[in-house]
Amino acid sequence: HALLNPCFILFRSTEEKPKYKPSAPKIPDGEKVDFDDIQKKRQNKDLIELQALIDAHFEHRKKEEEELIALKERIEKRRSERAEQQRIRADKEKERQTRREEERLRREEADAKRKADDEAKKKSVLSGMGSNYSSYLQKADQKRGGKKQTEREKKKKILAERRKPLNIDHLNEDKLREKAKELWEVMHTLESEKFDHIEKLKRQKYEPALRPRCSVSARRCGRGAFSGKELNTSQKKCFWE
């Protein structure tokens, strides 16, 4: 039974198989082997392969250098084109500004000429109305000019009083804080005066129109005619009713 076992048969076949024993190649009888020639051929083959690798390396490097040079040339060309485009754009912008300035000057000259012609026509018409009227207009112009000069001088005087030099270069941090606080207070005062002035102008503008209505409302409420003074509480209530 053991002989019929498949494992036993496989084991026996493995043991009985002869092993391979490598042996040196047989040199044919009557021939002499030149090992130096074989070595030289092998070295020549290695040298040829090495030379081929070196040539391929230098060829690849030469190609990369050519590509780099071409890239630099493209970059330089693009930079030159961009500079040329910017120069052209700047020239066009300069020409456009010049044309706008020339057009503005022409318009101003035309307006000045038209105004001068209108003034000349007015003076011609007025001069034909008589010398007395002309002298009257001359006096009126002088008076108006003197008034404008007076208002201008008054404005310059007020601005000169308010526009004082800061002189803050020599101040330290605390002094600068005090100076800033002082300037803020001045600004606050100016804004308050501006608001009061605007409100006063509004009252002066609407008071003549409201005075008749206030008088009628006051009489209707039995308080008498409105005399231009401020309404009391009952008059205000009656007016708004």
From TrEMBL:
SUPFAM superfamilies for the chain: Troponin coil-coiled subunits
Gene3D superfamilies referenced in this protein's UniProt entry, alphabetically: 1.20.5.350
Keywords of this entry: Acetylation, Muscle protein, Phosphoprotein
Pfam families according to UniProt: Troponin
Keyword Oxidoreductase: no
InterPro entries per record: TNNT (IPR027707), Troponin (IPR001978), Troponin_sf (IPR038077)
A single GO cellular-component term on record: troponin complex
Ranges annotated as biased composition (Basic and acidic residues): 74-122, 140-162
GO biological process, one term: muscle contraction
GO molecular function ontology, one term from the record: troponin C binding
Family from the record: Belongs to the troponin T family.
Function according to Swiss-Prot or TrEMBL: Troponin T is the tropomyosin-binding subunit of troponin, the thin filament regulatory complex which confers calcium-sensitivity to striated muscle actomyosin ATPase activity.
Name of protein: Troponin T3, fast skeletal type
The organism of origin for this protein: Scleropages formosus (Asian bonytongue)
Top-level taxonomy: Eukaryota, Metazoa, Chordata, Craniata, Vertebrata
Gene field: TNNT3
